[in-house]
Structures are given as structure tokens and as C-alpha cells.
Specification:
Layout: H1 2-29, E1 39-45, H2 66-73, E2 76-78, E3 81-82, H3 88-97, H4 101-104, H5 125-131, E4 135-140, E5 159-162, H6 190-200, E6 206-207, E7 211-213, E8 216-219, E9 222-223, H7 227-245, E10 249-254, H8 280-299, E11 304-310, H9 331-334, H10 347-350, E12 354-357, E13 366-368, E14 372-373, H11 377-385, H12 401-406, E15 414-418, E16 429-434, E17 437-443, E18 457-466, H13 482-503, H14 537-545
Parallel strand pairs: 1-10, 1-11, 2-13, 3-14, 4-5, 4-10
Antiparallel strand pairs: 2-12, 5-7, 6-9, 7-8, 11-12, 15-16, 16-17, 17-18
Helix pairs in contact: 2-8, 7-8
The structure holds 2-acetamido-2-deoxy-beta-D-glucopyranose (2 copies).
Length: 546
């Protein structure tokens, strides 16, 4: 990385210090206290595509994300922003620690039976803000270990409401199903099924997934169709009560949207929204956008920054239940028959729609193509909160305050994309961004819609694309050009330096990926699929009436 970058980072830190100072003084003039710190809402969508945000592809004239569009119009849209990994757990771990998986230990997903989670030696963003006097709350999918010390309330959050892992991971059916099952995944009496049908247009809505509040299971199986409402009311309560206390807060909302099973709201007026052919994906996208709109309204005029982004690209094998990668189609790979989105290091796997909104602080209607990563949220938020990052460990995130607040085009010089589950070895640094170039050491495809797969392929010499000319990653640079040689040399040097830096880093953690059946969250082991109750309560009520 070298001196130059260190100097740059140092100057950024100093600059932020100055900015905060200015804010505090201005605060004094308007009767606020010197200490008034900003609040933060970080919203992470699951499996969302870059092209799902309307304003990323205006030519398509879609209108599925009006609230996000408005936030982009009143704030900043980042068009070259990347999730730190191409699957769930590694991406979330890197966002919350500001470090690559090779440092924080999380290089692939945790399972229902996982005993452990994000290594306890890692320091999380909420932990640091909590220590600085922030109220810290999380709503949604955690997926960084659900047992004992690994749960959110033991990793820096004062409050938690959500699901411990993906919404397709609680049923006895095969994970990865597209819509809540019409056939129940638990044995329930015919009466129960009939009642559910009348309520939800023919589909059984409950899966053996737990809803957790703080560290207790409060509902199991969970009704996926009421999850958005539950999340929304909990989130608004957090925002309103923190405001009433005058306490700055961090609210991390990790939505179940757009991961399958999709459960868009059911309305008697639109029964067809249940039908797979009638845009369950679009309906879910609008549902997500509505929730974000509610958060925006609740936090407007309260010195709150909202950072919306995604955890990885769309799950391409889900076909009509997967999002859009926009123009980032990874053609080199798809021409060979493999998928180029989630799980892969093609752009579709990690380039995610991102909007940063902070009325009065972020200039309206700005777009930046600065190369940034979800790991950069950690140092940037700390910097805006006036909190010093931990000095006992190396961070991979950079402080992007000047991009966010001042329209400066300060990109990362390099960004590495780790293998997250396509062909190949977990955590391997498969691809490197250097400016407009992207170089692959290893390629591999995920399962495509229709079933094709792309085998792992090693590249020596490197496979290099110019993303400015070729955003679809179709035609690599010719090897016999000075341009190729220059990029290949820079990339090789940088990768060697990073690997050396990690190899000599005493703060590297290792995750325990062991599993045990007893580690699965269960409300009552004597009940089928760990139910919290024998028969759903409303069904009992209805029965009594008859
Ligand atoms: C969770 O913690 C909050 C306080 O932070 C408390 O008000 C709430 O009752 C707790 N919920 C459960 C289910 O323990
Ligand atoms: C936002 O900026 C674009 C060009 O960058 C411009 O066409 C558009 O009119 C602007 N919108 C608003 C509301 O200022």
C-alpha cells in the first residue's frame, strides 16, 4: 500500500476532525449542544441487484423504488460501490469490522447448526459507537452466529429484533425455495391449513424460522408475510424514542428483502401478486422501498445519515425471483455458460446499488463513481461520529468522508474481491480492481438461471478488463500491449503487499465453522419444527367462535 496511501489516509482523518469541529461550532450558534452527534441508519438489502434501483437505469423507466430515487435526488448515489464479498456472512462481517475476510476470519456462510460466528476477537462498529454513547439497535438478518456470545446483543447492539440467518434457512423443506410454501413444512391439522389459505390466497405462510428479540425467540415458526410490518414498527419505535431521549443512535437494518422466499404483502385487491408470474420480485422491491420511505420520513430533520446498500448481487439461478445486474452482465463468464452474479467475483456479484442521504450535509442530486467498498462504511461512520478507530488492528476500509460530504472524487486505489462460494477456495483474492481496470487471478461461475455452471479457471497471465470501455466484462485486454503490462505489474505488486500485510498481521482472526445439531435455534424442542406454541393463536380464537 505504501507511504503515499498512509499519508492520504492520515490527511483524511485530519480533515474529518476539522469538519466535525466546524459542525459543533455551528451547532452552538443554533442552540444545540456541542456534543450533538449525527445518527446513522445503515440499510442492507439482501441479494439486491445494481439494476434494481430505478435511477441506476433511467432508460428502463421503471418506478419500483420511488423513495430511494428521491433519496438519491436529495443526496448522493454511488455507482461504483461494492459489497466486500459476494455472499452473505462474509459481506456482513466485513461491513461490521471494516476488514477483509482473510483478517476477520469470515470467508463463507454460517449455517443453522453453526456453533460459533464472527470471531469474538473482532471489534464491531456498533461496539465502538456504543462505547461512544450511541444507542445501537439492529433489525433484521444477522447471519454472524446465533449462539450465546455471538448474538447481536453480545456484539455491540443494545437492542435486536430479527432472524438469525437467511429467510430460507428455517424450514424443513430444502433451503432456497422461492415463495413461502403452499404446502406446510410442518404437520398441521387440516383446519389450520384451511384458515391460512383463506388468509393468504392459498399459501401456507409459516416456516420453521425463529424471530429473535434481544436473545430470546419470540416467534417460531415465523410468519414471513408480517415481517416487514414488524420490522417497520420496531424501527420507527427506535428512531422516535432515541429522538425523545436526545441520544444519537446507530440503527442497522438488514432486510430479508430481496432474498427468496419472496413474501410481498398480500392485499385482497391484488391477489395476483401471489402468483409467481405476476412479479413477486417487483412487488417485494416496492415493499422494501416503502419501508425505506418510512425510515426516511421518521428520521428527516434529525441530523441522521442513511446509507443504503446491498450485501451481494442477485441470486441468478432464481430466474424471475432474482434481481437485475444492470449492464454488469459478466459476459466472459456467461458466454461459457456460468452465472456471473451472487457468489462470483464478476461485477454482478458485488457491485451493489448504493445511496447515501443526509439532508443539509450531503449536497443534493450528486452522483459519484468513486471506487468504494462496504468495508469503508466502518471508518467513515466512525469519522463522522468523531470516534477513533481501534489502533490495535489493521483496517481495510478507508474513510470516505470527503466523497460523501464534499463531492470529492477520492477513490480507493485498489479493491480486492474474495471468492465467496463459486468454484474455488473460500476467501481467495480472486480479482483486483485497480482504477478502471479489473484483473482476475481466478474466475468461476455460479449456477445460472437454467442450470449452467462455470468451472474454476486459473489465469496466469492475468485476465484484465477495462470496465470503462467494457462494463460487461466481455473482452479482456490483449496481452501484448503496454497498457496490459503496466496494469498487470501494478496489480501483482499490490496483491503481494496485501498478502504479506495479512500474513504478518497479529490481529488476524479465525472463525470456528464447526456445526452441531443442538446449535439450531429452537423455541421448544418437543414441538414439530421447534414451535413456540401448538396451534397458532388466532386459529384457536377462530375455532372457539365456531
Ligand atoms: C429487549 O430489550 C429491550 C431493552 O433494550 C426491552 O425493552 C425488551 O423488553 C427486551 N425484549 C425481550 C423479548 O427481552
Ligand atoms: C439532477 O442532476 C441531473 C444531472 O446531473 C439533472 O439532469 C437533474 O435535473 C437534476 N435534478 C434535480 C432535481 O436537481
Amino acid at each position: 500500500m505504501g507511504e503515499a496511501l498512509n499519508q492520504l489516509l492520515l490527511s483524511k482523518v485530519l480533515l474529518c476532525g476539522l469538519l466535525l469541529h466546524t459542525v459543533s461550532q455551528r451547532g452552538l450558534g443554533t442552540g444545540e449542544t456541542v456534543e450533538k452527534k449525527p445518527s446513522f441508519i445503515i440499510i442492507l438489502a439482501d441479494d439486491i441487484g445494481w439494476g434494481d434501483l430505478d435511477v441506476n437505469q433511467p432508460e428502463k423507466k421503471t418506478n419500483n423504488t420511488p423513495n430511494l430515487n428521491l433519496m438519491a435526488q436529495q443526496g448522493l448515489r454511488l455507482t461504483d460501490f461494492h459489497s466486500p464479498a459476494s455472499t452473505c456472512s462474509p459481506s456482513r462481517a466485513a461491513i461490521l469490522t471494516g476488514r477483509y475476510g482473510l483478517r476477520n476470519g469470515v470467508i463463507h456462510n454460517f449455517g443453522v447448526n453453526s456453533v460459533a460466528g464472527l470471531p469474538l476477537s473482532e471489534i464491531t462498529l456498533p461496539q465502538l459507537l456504543q462505547q461512544a454513547g450511541y444507542y445501537t439497535a439492529m433489525i433484521g438478518k444477522w447471519h454472524l452466529g446465533h449462539n450465546g456470545p455471538y448474538s447481536p446483543t453480545n456484539r455491540g447492539f443494545d437492542y435486536y429484533l430479527g432472524i438469525p440467518y437467511s429467510n430460507d434457512m428455517g424450514c424443513t423443506d430444502t433451503p432456497g425455495y422461492n415463495l413461502p410454501p403452499c404446502a406446510p413444512c410442518v404437520s398441521a391439522g387440516p383446519e389450520v391449513i384451511r384458515l391460512r389459505r383463506s388468509v393468504h390466497g392459498g399459501c401456507y405462510s409459516e416456516v420453521g424460522l425463529p424471530l429473535v428479540e434481544n436473545s430470546s425467540i419470540v416467534e417460531q415458526p415465523l410468519d414471513l408475510w408480517t415481517l416487514t410490518e414488524k420490522y417497520k414498527s420496531a424501527a420507527l419505535k427506535i428512531v422516535h424514542s432515541a429522538r425523545a431521549r436526545g441520544q444519537p443512535y446507530l440503527l442497522y437494518v438488514a432486510l430479508a428483502h430481496m432474498h427468496v422466499p419472496l413474501a410481498p404483502p398480500f392485499s385482497p385487491d391484488t391477489p395476483a401478486a401471489r402468483s409467481p408470474s405476476d412479479g413477486a420480485y417487483t412487488a417485494s422491491l416496492r415493499d422494501l422501498d416503502g419501508l425505506i420511505g418510512a425510515l426516511k420520513t421518521a428520521s428527516d430533520n434529525d441530523n441522521t445519515l442513511i446509507w443504503f446498500t446491498g450485501d451481494n448481487g442477485p441470486w441468478e439461478q432464481k430466474c424471475q425471483y432474482a434481481g437485475s445486474v444492470g449492464p454488469f452482465t459478466g459476459k466472459w463468464q456467461t458466454n461459457k455458460g456460468g452465472g456471473s452474479a451472487k457468489q462470483t467475483t464478476w461485477e454482478g456479484g458485488h457491485r451493489v446499488p448504493t445511496v447515501v442521504y443526509w439532508p443539509g450535509r450531503i449536497p443534493a442530486n450528486t452522483t459519484s463513481s468513486a471506487l468504494l467498498s462496504g468495508m469503508d462504511i466502518f471508518p467513515t461512520v466512525l469519522s463522522l461520529a468523531g470516534v477513533t478507530p481501534p489502533s490495535d488492528r489493521r483496517l481495510d476500509g478507508i474513510d470516505a468522508t470527503n466523497v460523501v460530504l464534499q463531492r470529492q472524487h477520492t477513490s480507493r486505489d485498489f479493491l480486492f474481491h474474495p471468492n465467496s462460494g463459486a468454484a474455488g477456495r473460500f476467501g481467495d483474492l480472486e480479482a483486483v480492481r485497480a482504477g478502471k481496470y479489473k484483473a482476475f487471478y481466478i474466475t468461476g461461475g455460479a449456477e445460472a438461471c437454467g442450470g449452467g455452471k462455470g468451472e474454476q479457471q486459473l489465469h496466469d497471465p492475468l485476465l484484465i478488463f477495462d470496465l470503462e470501455r467494457d462494463e460487461a466484462e466481455e473482452t479482456p485486454l490483449r496481452l501484448d500491449t503496454p497498457e496490459y503490462e503496466l496494469v498487470a505489474r501494478r496489480v501483482a505488486r499490490e496483491r503481494e503487499e496485501l498478502l504479506w500485510d495479512i500474513a504478518t498481521d497479529k490481529s488476524v482472526s479465525t472463525a470456528d465453522y464447526s456445526t452441531d445439531k443442538s446449535a439450531a435455534p429452537c423455541c421448544d424442542k418437543t414441538q414439530a419444527v421447534c414451535r413456540c406454541y401448538t396451534v397458532p393463536r388466532e386459529d384457536i380464537k377462530t375455532r372457539r367462535k365456531h
